[in-house]
């Protein structure tokens, strides 16, 4: 049976892809940094292996006998070098295909670190000598309900330094379904897909949430200084704060507004709207 390795298998998209693949006729290997923390994905049919990108010694055994890799990298400073080292081992191990999770707006010339790293990782994979598909999702809607981003939403206010820009919002379930379909198919060779939902301003987002919960919330466009303080209150480290502020700047400049039919073509239905997402998570938003 063919083996698919999913890296960062506990992540927002990785965990969903592992779940989608668990009943497919493939051998799924879930690469995780910490096996003890990964109990939730450790179910029948899923082989959980240690794959810590800070420990290159873990690459070789994780890639043994693997045909395809769904390659997710965490937001860490040396991710481009890691991508290069990992792709080299993948090539040596005879991997036939890499599906890279990149990001909308990936660009080697971007002033946002994240978007530049995505661009550089894409270049590494394109030059790896391995067949590839690159997936560039917009902002995950799930950011509004988890992590520090969601904590910017409190006391009836959503506070972000994003001005009145429209930002593309895509449901992680849709991204995972698109990635699963690409993984289960041998087409899509050397293609780049923009996985977009619809774009919204934060004013539109808070109106949608307010309509669904019946509780009024407002959007406040905050300065980067205030955003920095709020992230510090969430115990986000200085390096990550700078990276996130760079991305917020790109959002404010309108670089994250885009629409493509790629997602619809891959999953056979239109993208989830933010209203549908908010309704599904009404209890969390209430
Ligand atoms: N969030 C978005 O809106 C968005 C949009 C477009 C693209 N992306 C891209 O998607 C990728 C994943 O981001 P995310 O927000 O989905 O992440 P996430 O859900 O927060 O997950 C991060 C993952 O990275 C793992 N990890 C951290 N350090 C690791 C290491 N040294 N070795 C192996 N695994 C490690 C974590 O494992 P543990 O469970 O052990 O902590 C976790 O599985 C990033 O490249 C990001 O730029 C994100």
Structure notes:
- The protein has a domain at 3-137 and 172-195: NAD(P)-binding Rossmann-like Domain (Rossmann fold, 3-Layer(aba) Sandwich), CATH 3.40.50.
- Helix content is 40%, strand content 19%.
- It has 12 helices and 13 strands.
- Helix 3 runs parallel beside helix 4 (113-126), helix 7 packs parallel to helix 11 and helix 8 crosses helix 9.
- The chain starts with a strand and ends with a helix.
- The relative contact order is 0.13.
- The model has no long low-confidence stretch (mean pLDDT 94).
- Bound molecules: NADP nicotinamide-adenine-dinucleotide phosphate.
Question: What attributes does this structure have?
Answer:
286 residues; alpha/beta; Rossmann fold; 7-stranded parallel β-sheet; 3-stranded mixed β-sheet; 40% helix; binds NADP nicotinamide-adenine-dinucleotide phosphate
Helices, by number, come to: 12
The CATH architecture assignment of the domain at 3-137 and 172-195 turns out to be 3-Layer(aba) Sandwich
Q: Report the end-to-end length measured between terminal Cα atoms.
A: 45 Å
For this structure, the CATH topology of the domain at 3-137 and 172-195 is: Rossmann fold
Oligomer: single chain
Identify the CATH class of the domain at 3-137 and 172-195: Alpha Beta
Q: Which regions contain 5 or more consecutive residues with pLDDT less than 50?
A: none
**Shape descriptor:** globular
Strand order, largest beta sheet: 3-2-1-4-5-6-11
Topology as a string of helices (H) and strands (E): EHEEHEHEHEEHEEEHEEHEHHHHH
Mean pLDDT: 94
Tell me the CATH superfamily of the domain at 3-137 and 172-195: NAD(P)-binding Rossmann-like Domain
